[in-house]
Target: Sulfotransferase family protein
Amino acid sequence: MQQPIFIVGTQRSGTTLLTRMLSAHPGLFIQNEMGAYGVFDKPYTTEVLHDRITGRLLERHAIDVTLLESKGIQWGWKDPMLTPHLDELAEHYPGSKFIVIIRDPRAVVASYIDNAWGLGTNPYTGALLWQDEVATQLEFCCANRHRCLWFTYENLIEDNLQVLTRICEFLDVDFDHGMLEYYKKPLEFGQNRSNMNTQKPIEKSSLSKWKAAFSPRQIGIINNVCQDVMTELNYTDMADLNTCIGGLEKSYYKLHQKIMGELQLQYQLRKARRNARK
Model:
């Protein structure tokens, strides 16, 4: 059983961009999100888990893992939904490798709100989600240093050559310049508003867009929730803004998330079903 590569990060952290870059390497294939629902339903054995993953690749995306392996291609699966299952994957795939990409929480939360997928409908609940997921990812990396590589989205954007070289060394493959021209390769998944920027060269201006998305108070709310992990990751820009949040305000934000999050999710699912029928 070949040991796959797993790529994780919070939603809107650049995981799709990274997948595009790595899959432009002739010796790598990373499947973009295919849904984790049902894959980890218990009870299961290692063989059952492997059959579920490879079976879904074949049934939904016509990707034959045995064919990839026969060509010497390393394969993997990228999905933010894998974060709660990192320990399970590590246990059942003892030789697998994990790549974690982390992005500034202010940028992530701004994207949550803009994309309206119900992930974070306001700065407070979006920050809570980022804090919980990134803390889980970093804890996993700390406990599995020999098989994990993590870096920030900002590192990838500002010095993609250096980061991609590190990834190739980690995966034990030669560097390929095609990864720097990922946008020239046809999409292997459906185009939508969320991934359209992965079809063009990197724009460093994207790193600071979050500053125009929030008021100073909203930035302070995110900083307040995420300050410990932000300090660890050296996210210091405007980190001096810190807004204390009262209990009543927290309750309002959580209610807002519960109602608006569900409405947004149902709308997006209906839209996706309509598009699939066209």
Observations:
- Residues 247-277 form the longest helix (31 residues).
- The mean pLDDT is 92.
